Amino acid sequence: MSLPGASPLFAAISFASYNTRVVLLGASLLGLAAGVIGTFLLLRKKALIGDVVGHCALPGIAVAFLVIERTSPGAGKNLPALLVGATCAGLLGAQTVSLIKLFTRVDNDTSLAVVLSVFYGAGVALLSVVQRLASGSSAGLKDFLNGQTAAIVSQDVWIFSGASLAIVLVTGLLFKEFTLLCFDEDFARTRGLPTRALDIALTLLATAVSVVGMQTVGLLLVTAILVTPPASARFWTNDIRVMALLAGLTGVVSAAAGVIASAARERLPAGPMIVLCGGALFVFSLLFGRERGVIWLWAIHRRERLRNDRTDLLRSLYESVEANPQSARPSKDGAIRAVIPRDHIEPLRTWSSRRLNRALGACIRDGILGRTSDGSIALTQTAIEEGARIVRNRKLWELYLQQFADVSAASIDRNRDLLDHALDPALVRQLESALGESPRV
Amino acid sequence: MSPEAAHQQSHSPSRPAGGPASPLVIHDLTVAYQRKPVVWDIDYETQAGKLIAIVGPNGAGKSTLIKAALNLVPRISGEVLFFGEPYKRVRHRVAYVPQRTTVDWDFPVSALDVVAMGLYREIGWFRPVTRRYREQALAALERVAMQDFARRQISQLSGGQQQRVFLARALAQNAELYLMDEPFAGVDAATEQAIIGVLRELRSSGQTVIVVHHDLQTVSEYFDDVLMMNMRLIAAGPVGTVLTAENLRRTYGGKLSLIDQVSQKMAEQHR
């Protein structure tokens, strides 16, 4: 090809070909349905159900094909019939896992692994039987394994779109019941909700998505479109409604992006591209997600550590001033109360010099500490007051523990440093009132 | 049923003819896990308008007793009647507070969402939680002094606050009988006071509350009646007559060093 990418990409984005438009619509709706129903699978800790259904559907597809070939030779690749076969086998597999869990003491992941591999093995064996029949129409069955989005004809897309919309609609109607089922099944049962029926409904919807998704992304990858979008959405929100919405949206975006990418490049399969786009969105969410993204958490953690280091530094400086009366050197204008040589900051010897410098720098920028010409640390009135307050709080707490909680001095000591950061003004007021008006500390 | 248990109970477990049916009658209840009985042949009848504690050592089947009464675990034998009827027909009159640790508190819902779950049955299938129900849920949160946390995601609440949210969910149902599984386990002092305040409020408006309780020291302070069990029913009745050192020893076997402490405490109270 002389112009790799450029003009097909333009063609894909401008939706020039009718076929691309149709496939794009079908895949997007599938992404929406998968994201919404996947939200509940994730919250019910059944993320792998799509994997089970996908693998278990294979023998169903093969059997359906064989049955149809038997009755009317040559008509084996009848999509609705194959989907029915896939659905039945997928459901059977999912229910087998539930039953094993219910009646034996086999671990859940063990039964998952056994069931899906046995069903898949049966499927592969049956598929070889199908191929030995040498019917020309059997070629299409391989599409279920790897997905063949481009081969989807517009007639199929209407089936998929209708199914996807129906799945979204049903999930929307049962939203509050599914929420309660996932959050607190026992309570749901006491309220009279038919939890078993709801659970089967949830599995059925997930099976429907998986079966529809198989043609697009392949049965081995179908679990990705169920799980990745809600997992990404969880990083952005703490509200299940927003999570379902975002998951649906993420599903749409990754499906559309995957289809466009595959249309832009010849031989680039759409299924894996959809999964990769979803994966990219997941990594992005994991890093930048507003509620739980690692960067935000890291920023919060860092801010907290800086605040704690400041508390420790001021307490330590105050204690050094108390211990060395000669360090008290009030300046003429009264701005500086004491000066401590840097290497005399006693209790902080375990700190790295980088950590110490950072804490000192922050306090100096705030104007509560100063640096003298010989590198010693000068404490302002504010620094002395804040240090005194921190030390007093600690003593208040120790007094409280000894008087009210009967805690020995030794066990108090171990948690001292953690406490300095936990005692906010409200707690201190409570302590003071517990210990009387003016406790002697 | 052991003869002692029969002796301790004030009523026979059958329904008294004519008068209003007891909130909870348990007859011959036996439950087994993996063929091993955990609740064995319990007979019990609750009097209305009381605060009742179920006490017993770990693994005595206290939670299982409640769950079996609510059909959450299968029974081997026995009959349970709420207000004289099977549970299915009087769900709206009975509220359940499960153990706090049985759910995933990282779930993406707010405190208000959880309380509204108590109203789902009233709201009905396929309908959203409308403003009217949100206000009802908020009122329930106010009763446990949690209205300021309504919009908080539940993982950001302390253990005690989570427990109060669970209690509010049950209160939202406006039931007549409340079954609570370890509501005082691992909560702070403020929560303990808030919960006991709510329990007393319920009692004064004629409701009945049955609580699985683990703290023997507070049984006589908080509750009117006590049900002592260790797989079998040991004794049931008013705290003053049933919570004896002898019954405690029979409930807890030799395992309890607290016995002496508690009996001393009771001696102090009787003085």
Fraction in helix of chain B: 25-40%
Biggest interface between chains: A-B, 24 and 30 residues
Rg of chain B: 19 Å
Amino- and carboxy-terminal Cα gap of chain B: 34 Å
Q: Globular, elongated, flat, extended or rod-shaped: what is the shape of chain B? A: globular
Regions of chain B with pLDDT < 50 over 5+ consecutive residues?
1-17
Would you tell me the structural class of the helices and strands of chain A? mainly alpha
Structural class of chain B: alpha/beta
Tally of helical runs of chain B: 11
- How much strand of chain B? 15-25%
Structural commentary:
The complex is a heterodimer of chains A (441) and B (271). With 441 residues, chain A is mainly α. Chain A has 19 helices and three strands. The N and C termini of chain A lie far apart (85 Å). Chain B is α/β, with parallel strands linked by helices and 271 residues long. Chain B is 36% helix and 21% strand. Chain B contains eleven helices and nine strands. In chain B, helix 5 (131-143) crosses helix 6. Residues 1-17 of chain B have low confidence and may be disordered. The chains are: A mainly alpha (441), B alpha/beta (271). The A-B interface holds A 43, 173-177, 179-180, 182-184, 186-187, 189-193, 234, 237-240, 243 and B 67, 70-72, 88, 91, 94, 96, 98, 102-104, 107-110, 113-114, 117-118, 120-121, 123, 125-126, 128-129, 153, 155, 169.
Q: What keyword list fits this structure?
A:
heterodimer, A: 441 residues, mainly alpha, three-stranded antiparallel β-sheet, 19 helices, 3% strand, elongated, disordered N terminus, B: 271 residues, alpha/beta, six-stranded mixed β-sheet, 11 helices, 36% helix, 21% strand
In short:
The complex is a heterodimer of chains A (441) and B (271). With 441 residues, chain A is mainly alpha-helical.
